[in-house]
Amino acid sequence: MASLNVGNLGEYLRDQRRTAQLSLRQLADAAGVSNPYLSQIERGLRKPSAEVLQQVAKALRISAETLYVRAGILDEKEREELETRAVILADPSINERQKQVLLQIYDSFRKENAAEAAAAAAQAARTAEADQAAAGATTAGATTAGTNGAGAAETPAGAPAAAAERPVDAPDA
Predict the structure, then answer these.
(1) Quick one: pLDDT at residue 16?
(2) Do residues 163 and 173 touch, judged by C-beta distance below 8 A?
(3) Hey, which of 87, 114, 153, 162 has its CA 20 to 30 A from 98?
(4) If pLDDT is split at 50, 70 and 90, which confidence band does 172 have?
């Protein structure tokens, strides 16, 4: 759960109230809260409950979930899920059975995508660990195999020592 950010909430409420062309007193009356209490919320001095936010949202005709996110009560992903569910449930053009089927499909897609995301994250973590292990082995191998005991460069495995000493543009004999 996110931490409360009441100052941001208060500014947002003030902007919404002004957009709705309501005075502080009018909004307080419509929301059923006291004028001083609403003023303190707008100034970031009070932390309103979810119930008060719901009443204010209803009076402003905005989403209560948006206010919950602004207040830190709800995170953005939870808000999006709740809004999607609310839209489906509020649609008058589909019946209750259809709404429930849509919600079941929505839930199954969310679970499937969450499982795929978890699997991809686990695979990425395994790949990163393997890359780190390989990089560590390469670095360790390079420091121990970089020189022979006398400090002369080694020839590649399986290559004849004479081939390493022969000049590149010397003709083959």
Answers:
(1) 94
(2) no
(3) 114
(4) low
pLDDT tops 50 at residue 110: yes
Contact 67, 34 (CB under 8 A): no
Q: Is 5 helix (H, G, I), strand (E, B) or coil?
A: coil
Cβ atoms of 70 and 9 within 8 Å: the answer is yes
In the three-class reduction of DSSP (H, G, I as helix; E, B as strand; rest coil), residue 46 is classed as: coil
Residue 18: per-residue pLDDT: 94
* Contact between 6 and 46 (Cβ < 8 Å): yes
State how far the Cα of 124 lies from the Cα of 136, in Å rounded to an integer: 18
Interatomic CA distance for residues 170 and 78, integer angstroms: 73
Q: Which two tokens stand for residue 95?
A: 């019946």
Residue 168 CA to chain centroid, in angstroms?
Answer: 57
HSE-CB at 91 with a 13 A cutoff on CA atoms is: 16
- Per the document, the length of the chain is 173
